[in-house]
Design goal:
Length: about 120
């Protein structure tokens, strides 16, 4: 089932509100990046659909965010809507590869499959 533009907007707002209202202390250096990251990259990290290379606008945001900081904000409620595997894929496609074993939310980046 495709998610409408209104559905995406609702998801983006819900994720932002969850992050902003969490009991975690939000780091000032990445708190402001969350809404822009959601707006520019949501369609590339949504649970539904295949992996799709991100847009240049999404990559511009990904290239400047503090990935470990953003990952520290990811909670299980966010993972209901966001595919962490796709998020890692997007980071890699944008020239920000993450090392095997890196943890983002509850997702641990796996080691590459043997050739």
């Amino acid at each position: 089932m495709a998610v409408s533009k209104i559905g995406f907007a609702f998801i983006a707002i819900a994720i932002f509100l969850i992050v902003a209202s969490s009991n975690q202390v939000l780091a000032a250096d990445c708190e402001d990046d969350v809404p822009v990251l959601i707006i520019q990259c949501r369609q590339y990290v949504a649970k539904a659909g295949p992996k799709v290379p991100p847009s240049s606008e999404c990559c511009q945001v990904v290239k400047r965010v503090d990935i470990p900081c953003i990952c520290s904000l990811v909670q299980s409620t966010i993972e209901l809507f966001i595919s962490m595997e796709k998020a890692v894929y997007v980071a890699e496609q944008c020239g920000r590869p993450v090392a095997p074993g890196f943890v983002c939310g509850s997702y641990t980046v796996p080691a590459p499959a043997p050739a």
